[in-house]
Amino acid sequence: MRIDLAFCIELEKTVDIYKACQEFSAQTKYSKFHFLCSDPVCRETGTRVSGVNHQYLPEDDDVLKSPHYRMWDIHSAECEWVCINEVANDALHENDSESAGSILNKKNRKLITKFILPDDAESNSDFISNELTSIRKEKNPENKVKKIKDYLRVTGSTATCLESLVSCFEELKAIDRLDENLTISGYGETTFKTFFKQLKFAHTSQLSVIHGGARIYKRYSNGVGFSLNFLDKYNKKHVSMYVSSDMLKNSKNGGRILRIVDEVQNTTDSNPYLKVYWIGGMHLEEGDSHYKVNINTLAHVVMKIVYPKTTQSNS
User: Fold this and answer.
1) φ, ψ of residue 271 in degrees (nearest 5)
2) Which of 162, 179, 202, 313 is least surrounded by CB atoms within 10 angstroms?
3) CA 198, 203, 208 angle in degrees (round to 5)?
4) Sheet holding 68-71, edge to edge
């Protein structure tokens, strides 16, 4: 059963799974979170939800480890997620069962059709909660179904977090469906295949998500800031990225990124490196000998660990 939000007992608030990942990594001492269903009736009765993989670091090309919420206890028949999934399943029977949306839905994932740049958005949790409140208040059955359909088509298919969009990209890549349409708020329509570009094929004049492998070049004296060198060149020049200590300390995603960099630096036996995704286009600054990636916010950056294929990770 697809669940987009859950109430985190430790945080004492309702969050999406990516917010849970961020908050987990922001702890001084890492302790696994516990979740209840976000529906008021289910929460009152202590209905538990599993926060799958929220405590693990993201690995490249491992969609099985993508963080998500999963049903644990039996939910109330009136639970918002039970109702939403019933409407979604009815829609699947009416439409093509082999569509990308249907395939992802069977895996309790969502097909993202709209992306709002993080600078312009509420958090995923707030964005979804606003629509759920409207659904909860609706007493007319027909109107409620209509609002749920709107939720699935609009809010429930919108991402305001880059990591969520990256996870959808990786899911679609795994099933060879990157031609799915994607609307970028304020910019228009594109496809996942067009919007995501490998570094060596990127265009600095176009907004896109650029991705490429990178190794840690240097950790600075404070042990927080770092710089990366990318494995691929752009226009035959090397590419680097610098992340300052202030940016890490002031970003909601700073703790998660710092954990990832620490893991890569401290794992010497398998020599892992990083797969970096960032919202780019206008952010590649050309110098005499290399390009520098200019990042204004870590909300525009996602990092995943790449382990050699022959090595089993235990992060």
Assistant:
1) 50, 55
2) 179
3) 65
4) 13-15, 6-8, 35-37, 48-52, 68-71
Tens digits of residue pLDDT in 98-135: 788 888 877 878 899 999 998 766 667 777 888 898 89
CB 256, CB 21: distance < 8 Å: yes
Give 302's strand partners: 277
- Could you please state the CATH topology (level 3) that the domain comprising 196-306 is classified under: OB fold (Dihydrolipoamide Acetyltransferase, E2P) (2.40.50)
Question: How is residue 151 written in tokens?
Answer: 């939720």
pTM given for the model: 0.90
* CA–CA gap between residue 123 and residue 214 (Å, rounded): 28
Residues 261/302, Cβ–Cβ less than 8 Å = no
Q: How many residues does the chain have?
A: 315
Please name the residues in contact with 220: beta carbons below 8 A apart, sequence gap of 6 or more.
226, 245
Could you identify the residue written with the tokens 């190794």?
A: 215
Q: How confident is the model at residue 55 (pLDDT cuts 50, 70, 90)?
A: very high
6 touches 15 (CB < 8 A): yes
Q: How do the residues of the chain divide into helix, strand and coil, expressed in percent and rounded to 5? A: 35, 25, 40
Backbone angles phi, psi at 239, to 5 degrees: -125, 135
For the chain, how far is it from start to end, CA to CA, in angstroms? 27
Phi, psi (rounded to 5 degrees) for 260:
-65, -45
Q: Mean pLDDT across the stretch 295-314?
A: 79
Share of the chain above pLDDT 70, in %: 93
Closest CA relative to residue 40, chosen from 151, 136, 159, 155: 136
Interval 282-306 mean pLDDT: 86
User: What angle, rounded to 10 degrees, do the helices at 17-25 and 124-137 form?
Assistant: 140
